Amino acid sequence: SFKDSWELVEDLRGLTGNIQKPVKQEGLMLKKRKWPMKGWHKRYFLLERGILTYAKTGNDVSKGRLRGRIDVGLSVMAVKKKSLCIDLDTEDSIYHLKAKTRDLFEQWVTELRHHRMFRQNEIAMELFPGETESHTDYIFFPLYYQRSFISKQPSALLKNNFRQNSQDMEKCCKDLSECESGLLELNLLLKNMEVLHRTFSAPAINLLQTEGSKKEKRGHKKWRSKNYSKENKSTQQVKHAVSLIHLTDLLFSSKILTLHLPDLPDGSRPLLQQVSSESRGSIPESLSEFFDAKEYLLSGSSSENEVSDDDSYISDVSDSMSVEYCRNENGITKAILSNGNDCALKRRDRLPSSRMNESVNLWSILRSNIGKDLSKVAMPVQLNEPLNTLQRLCEEVEYSHLLDTAVNTHDPHMRMVYIAAFAISAYACSFTRAGGKPFNPILGETYECLRPDKGFRFIAEQVSHHPPVSACHCESKNYTFWQDVRWKNKFWGKSMEIVPMGVTHLELPGFGDRYEWSKVTSCIHNILSGQRWIEHYGEMSIKHSTTMGDVSHCKVTFLKSRSGGLNANEVEGVVTDSHGRVIHSLFGKWSEALYLGKPPSVTCIWRANPMPEDHEQYYGFTQFAVELNELEEGLKPLLPLTDTRFRPDQRLLEEGDIAGAEEQKERIEVLQRERRRVLQENSMTHSPRFFKRAEDDSWVSNGTYWDLRKDPGFSKLEFPVLW
C-alpha cells in the first residue's frame, strides 16, 4: 500500500521564531531523466537556505552553470526508504532523486526536512509579520496551488483568509494527500494489469475482480470480442482485461483527478486541481505511465485475449481443429480441440539451457573477408543463437495486435499510424540480440507458426540459396502480410553492416488497403572486442494505396547514433496525406515505445513487451522468441520434416550441446552441397514447395500449405532429406 511505500513529509504547522538556520548540504545523487526518456543520471546537488540547485558537476554549480533550481519550501516532498528515493513535486514537474547508500539517503532526507521547515517558516514570516508561534491555528497552505495564490494575494488578505478558513484548508491538505495515495495505488494496479494483459491467459485477470464478479461461474465458454467505448461504463472496476477502459473512465469522472478547494477572497471560482499535460509526471512513480498504459491497452487488439464474434474464424485458422478456451478447477488454461482432446496451452518461459560461453577467435575468420558478403562464410556454431532466420521473420509479427487495431480504425491516416508502429516494432527484438546470429536456413527448409491466441497463422520457406532468399506469409481474418528478404552482410573491421533487400507487403481486405515498405540498414558494433551493440539507421517509407489511388504516406527515420550514444535507437516519423500535408507526427525508440504527437501532449501507440527474467543468460530472447522453437509432442506429426524445429544442430545448441551442434552443422552443410551438386549435374533447379514468383518478381504463397497440412497431411507426402 501507499503507507508502506511512500511517506509524505509534513508541512509547517505553525509560526516559530527559533528555527535554527540549516547548514549547507551538497553532493552527488541520481536524478531520473525527464519523461519520455528513461533511466537515471548523476547530478551534483547544493542545498542552501531551502533552495536546492543542481548541475552536472560540482564545478558547474560553483560557476553558476545550473541545470535546475528547486524551492523545497514550496514543494511536496515524499520519501521511499526501501528504494532510497526522494520525490520533490513543484507543481510544474516532479523531481525523482535517489541516493546510492542508506547513510547518504538518511543524511539528505534529514537536511531536506530541516531546510524545508526553515524555508516554509521564512515564507510564513514574510506573509505574517509580527506573528508568533502562539497562533497554533495557522496551517501552511496547500502546496499544490500556493505559488499562484501567493502571487495574487496581498499579505493582509492572506492573513485573514487563512485564519477564517484554516479548517477548510486542513481538510484540503488531507484530501490532496488521499488523492495522491489513490493515484499511486491505481497506477500500481494498472501496471500489474498491463503485465497480466500481455500474458496469454486473459481469464487470469479475475484475480483482480470485485467480490461480486468473483462469484460468477465461468464454465466452458468461448471468448468473444466486443467493441468497447469510453461511454460503456460499468459498476464493476474490473471484469476482464478490456475493462481497463471502465477504470480510466472512473478516474476521470471521480474526485481523484478533480478536487474543489474552498472559495478564495478574490471572488474567483473554486480552484480546480487537475492533471494537465505539463504535469503528468507530478505524482511519484510518474503519472505519465498511467496515461501510457491506458493508451497502450486501449490500442491492443482483441485478438490476443479474445476471439472474434465469428465463431468460424478459429476453425479456419486452425485448419480442421476448432479451439475453445476454458479454465479448469486448478485455474490452468486449456485448449479444447474439436476432436475432444484437450491440451495445455501453457508455453515454456525459458530455453532448456542457458548460453554457453566459449571463446571464438573471430578475427582469424573475418580478417580475410573485410568488405565481403559474409553470408557465404561458414561460421562456428558458438556464434549462433538457437533460432533460424525463418523464425526471425516470424518475430516481426509479435505485435500483430497493432494490425488488428488498424483494421478497427476508420480514419486512414490513423490506420497508417498503427501500420508504422507495427513496422517499427519489428526491430524491438533485436535490441538484446547483438551477441549472436540466427542459423542460415537450408534450401527448402520451412517453418510454421500457428497462434490462435494472436489470431494468425504464419509460414516461411527458404526459396533460394545463392543468393539466399527467405519468404514468409502471415494471414488472419483481418490482414495478409508477406515479404521476401535477402541480406548482404559486410564486415568493416570493427562492425558488421546488414543491408536488407526486398519489399514488405500488407493488405487490409476490409478497407481495400495495401501498404508497402522496405527495411532499414542494421549495424552490429564491437564485433571483435568490447560490448556488442546493434543500431538501425536509414529511412523507411511506407506507401499506402487503394483501388482509388494513393491515400497517405509515412516516412520514418531511424536516427544514427551520435558520439557518446546520444539519440541512440531514436525514430522520428510523419504521416502525410496525398497532398503532402503533415497529419500526424511520431517519435520514440524502436527498442522501447512509439508516441503520437509532440511533447508534452502525446499518446503511447506501442510499447515493447517486458523482457523475461535472466534473459541475458538465454541469448537475450523475448518471451515470444523463447516459444518459437518449442516442439510439442502433439505438433510433431502435423509438421513437414523440413520444419526448422526438426533441425538437429539448432536443437542441440538450444540444449547446450555445442560440440554436438557443431558436428551436426557441418554434416548438414555437406548434405546441402551434395544436393546442389546433383542438381547442377542434372541441369535441374530447385522449385520451392509453398511459394511461387509473382509478376513483380517477388515471392508469394501458392496457397497450398494449410490445405496439404489438412489433407492428406504432411506425414503422407515426400520431402527432401535436409538433415
Automatic annotation (TrEMBL):
CC terms in the record's Gene Ontology section: cytosol; endoplasmic reticulum membrane; filopodium tip; nuclear membrane; perinuclear endoplasmic reticulum; plasma membrane
Keywords carried by this UniProt record: Cell membrane, Cell projection, Cytoplasm, Endoplasmic reticulum, Lipid transport, Lipid-binding, Membrane, Nucleus, Phosphoprotein, Transport
Molecular-function annotations in GO: cholesterol binding; sterol transfer activity
Gene Ontology BP annotations: bile acid biosynthetic process
Region (Disordered): 213-234
Membrane topology value: Peripheral membrane protein
Ranges for domain PH: 22-117
Gene3D superfamilies per UniProt: 2.40.160.120, 3.30.70.3490, Pleckstrin-homology domain (PH domain)/Phosphotyrosine-binding domain (PTB)
Cell compartment(s), UniProt: Cell membrane; Cell projection, Filopodium tip; Cytoplasm, Cytosol; Endoplasmic reticulum membrane
Function: Phosphoinositide-binding protein which associates with both cell and endoplasmic reticulum (ER) membranes. Can bind to the ER membrane protein VAPA and recruit VAPA to plasma membrane sites, thus linking these intracellular compartments. The ORP3-VAPA complex stimulates RRAS signaling which in turn attenuates integrin beta-1 (ITGB1) activation at the cell surface. With VAPA, may regulate ER morphology. Has a role in regulation of the actin cytoskeleton, cell polarity and cell adhesion. Binds to phosphoinositides with preference for PI(3,4)P2 and PI(3,4,5)P3.
Family from the record: Belongs to the OSBP family.
Protein name: Oxysterol-binding protein
Organism for this UniProt entry: Cyprinus carpio
